[in-house]
């Protein structure tokens, strides 16, 4: 639902009229026009500013990794954090190709990364506990993750924020969180993650169904505490913080999608800031997107995370904002349709 425009800001009708007055057949830029309208409504101006994007990668470890739900060992989380800081990961090279700066936020990697430029510490511990046996984190840590994220997200100096994540076994935490928030069955949401084979996926599904059965219906905050992750909670808070400052939030894949579900559950108005970048190849992502009636911009069979999908959407978001700078029929002396 479109929010009512605030005093002095263009209404949805005024934004639509501005787009319709540009030198093109009405609606001919298709979904780019819908994106443009969303950006103008969020910023409350007819010529929105969309110059700078920034990527943040939220990283943390997950106790449920001990249940054998990932194809990779837990140490890879910390090793990849070092790789991000050295500039060697997929997210780094894609971001660099677009001049987008990268920040890594340590939300609770098992072994604390060495302080390096580009690293922000919002650590809540050395990873979560195994949610198969008990709560992943204390209620106070869930609250702290959201608060840390809120402050961090509000302080990012960019017109659009891309959020990615790193955390071995976090497709499991995202599956459980999305299940608790939406009621979509675990078996629909659980996927291959880093590359489980058929048998390992069956085992993962059984394990996650057991973990889900440990608790009943949960509030959003309780769901984060019971089955979530430090990086997922911090990212959800950052989505809220950035959206409150009227920044576009470009949502990445399955795990970021679960964080967005949490952010929406806490504050439905965040929706006006969210742009769902891509449909991940991770099994449950389609069901998650359908649940929020989101139609992502593209489907590249990607299933990496790190914010790689969000980054690829950035040039399209920037181009969408630019169409407000087109000449109108009147400005350019172009004859309008009969
Ligand atoms: C080398 C490597 C780089 C990654 N970059 C993102 N992920 C992705 O895979 C993980 C989730 O999958 P699962 O739940 O199966 O562990 C997350 O860290 C996610 O960001 C990676 C995974 C690996 C192995
Ligand atoms: O869609 C994602 O974000 C994803 C999928 C698999 C593994 N890591 C991330």
UniProtKB/TrEMBL annotation:
GO biological process per UniProt: cobalamin biosynthetic process
Catalytic activity entry: 5,6-dimethylbenzimidazole + nicotinate beta-D-ribonucleotide = alpha-ribazole 5'-phosphate + nicotinate + H(+)
Enzyme class: transferase
Family matches, as InterPro entries: Nict_dMeBzImd_PRibTrfase, Nict_dMeBzImd_PRibTrfase_bact, Nict_dMeBzImd_PRibTrfase_N, Nict_dMeBzImd_PRibTrfase_sf
Active site, renumbered: 306
CDD domains: DMB-PRT_CobT
Pathway note: Nucleoside biosynthesis; alpha-ribazole biosynthesis; alpha-ribazole from 5,6-dimethylbenzimidazole: step 1/2
UniProt-recorded Gene Ontology molecular function terms: nicotinate-nucleotide-dimethylbenzimidazole phosphoribosyltransferase activity
Keywords: Cobalamin biosynthesis, Glycosyltransferase, Transferase
Gene3D superfamilies assigned to the protein according to its UniProt record, in alphabetical order: 1.10.1610.10, 3.40.50.10210
Record EC number: 2.4.2.21
Signal sequence annotation: none
Protein family: Belongs to the CobT family.
Role description: Catalyzes the synthesis of alpha-ribazole-5'-phosphate from nicotinate mononucleotide (NAMN) and 5,6-dimethylbenzimidazole (DMB).
UniProt protein name: Nicotinate-nucleotide--dimethylbenzimidazole phosphoribosyltransferase
The organism of origin for this protein: Pacificimonas flava
Classification lineage: Bacteria, Pseudomonadati, Pseudomonadota, Alphaproteobacteria, Sphingomonadales
